[in-house]
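Dig into what follows:
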Amino acid sequence: MYFKFDAIMNDEDYINFNVFYQTMTPDGKRGIKRARIRLIIVSLLMCFIVFSLTQSPGATAYFFTVLLIYFIVFCLRKKQNAVNITKRSLKISRESGRHLYPQYSVMEFFDDYFVESVDGIRTEIMYSVVKSVKILNGRYLYIDINNTGFYILPFKAFSSNEECTVFIDFLRTKVQNVEFY
């Protein structure tokens, strides 16, 4: 069987992928957990420094309360934090003349492997190295390559719902782990 798709991506697609990765995947959740732990450690260290400098339990309690509120807001806004971080990364990359994602690629799926072609560079990937395929709300299909990278196929690349269904059924025969979010 053979499938060919023109994958046209924009900033919104890239931001949505990063929000998904940071808030829904095990690796992303671990990263958020590590950031929270670092924030707690830094906050406690700062409270210790404030107490050491002021010798005032009241000032330390006030400072601790402010940091606690900041920490709670940080935890509650993890999706918005992911959006902001990704937008900042996009801005920095553009200023340096780089792109963080291919705006246009051709993805071809064969029986034993698939190919992504970007700017004349072809990358062949065997299905055996695909860790999982993640399907997000009928909007995106993410192909996880053993935690070394993802290939993003927006559903707008499909010509119809039927083509999408047939393609997902095809992937299920090639990849053991197909997850729906």
About this structure: The longest strand covers residues 3-8.
